[in-house]
Amino acid sequence: IVLLVLITSHYKLTVPRFLMCNLSFADFCMGLYLLLIASVDAQTSGQYYNHAID
Q1: Has the keyword Membrane been applied to this entry (predicted)?
Q2: For 8-50, how does the pLDDT look when each residue is reduced to its tens digit (9 = 90+)?
Q3: Residues 2, 20 contacting (CB under 8 angstroms)
Q4: Distance between CA 30 and CA 14 in Å, rounded?
Q5: Alpha helices (H) along the chain
Q6: Which strand (E) or helix (H) includes residue 54?
C-alpha cells in the first residue's frame, strides 16, 4: 500500500520518499518469501523423518 501511494503521488520523489519506497518493496519481497516458505512447510508437514540423515 505504501509503495503504491508513494509512486502514484504527484509530489517530487525526495530522498526520504525514495528510501521509504525501497523499504516497502523490501518488506513486500520478504512477505512473499515467508509465504513461500510457509506454504512449502504446510505441504511437507510430517515428512521430515523420511529425509533425515541418521
Answers
A1: yes
A2: 887 887 888 889 888 989 999 999 999 999 998 898 887 777 7
A3: yes
A4: 24
A5: 2-8, 15-43, 48-51
A6: none
